[in-house]
Amino acid sequence: MKIGFAGLGSMGSAMAGNLIRAGHEVTVWNRSPDKCAPLVAAGAKQAKTPADAANGELVMTMVANDAALEEVVFGTGGILAATGKAAHISMSTISVELSERLTQTHGEAGRGYASAPVFGRPPAAEAGKLFIAAAGPADVLALCEPVFAAMGQRVFTLAEKPSAANVVKLGGNFMIMAAIEAMAEAMTLCQKYGVEKASFLEVLTGTIFNAPVYQVYGDILVNERFRPAGFTAPLGLKDMTLVASAASSARVPMPILGIVRDHLLETLAQEGDDIDWSAIAGAVSRNAGL
Ligand code: NAP
Description:
Rossmann fold; 6-stranded parallel beta sheet; 9 strands; globular
């Protein structure tokens, strides 16, 4: 299939690489063009603009945030300016509001649109083991089937309305942050009573908390492996801000959200931008005098 891919960060590079390996004809675009080189070496074509990447059947986007996606779609040389009618599949974690705006704009332009944000960090993207939460018109999602199969281990089809997938992704990321916060608080408590973090984690993941979120992030917390970041604290803050905005619009109080968001702000202020979002564990232990 002829596919455009815009956004070659930690996630996008790995995802586009898997599309090339699966035999698709991939055209890549990235704001900083040098990141295209490894994919071009692997067989991709390089586009000069997102619009140039949108002349096949699908154009996937995996950029940082709402502002980046707005640039890629509505900016000069953006997807809206493409002569072709590739359906746009947005895989970034973006706001419900932008997803609704894209649904309307693409609809008016006669272009298909679906949202397909993902769960899984860069190593899962590399291994083609992402979980994909997809929502959009059935014909667009049918086109995506072989493409999703090359990038993910499972696709959850949620609804015809694309923004359904975005709200599910935001809810999921809030739950990851809440799990990290809860684990960090319990680990800090145990440490103050002389119990090693690793021993605590072994008991919990060996009993009723044997889920990937506790295994993956528990290991990061035990080893304080916060750099290099798999998912940076600024991206985490972006997501918690999007959750807060969706919650305000729908009048949903989310008290735990305020706590994790403040811990992210504290982490960014103390540590800078290049740290993993799970480093909120440092804020928890500092506040306990460790
Ligand atoms: P990343 O490594 O920081 O890459 C960000 C990408 O966005 C880069 O290609 C960057 O281009 C591009 N970008 C930023 N601002 C732009 C702008 N104004 N115009 C055009 N392009 C712009 O981020 P990532 O970790 O790959 O994450 C990408 C998306 O996936 C985010 O929405 C994130 O929330 C989501 N996500 C990430 C993870 C994870 O664990 N990392 C997991 C699930 C979902 P340059 O190269 O030019 O900077």
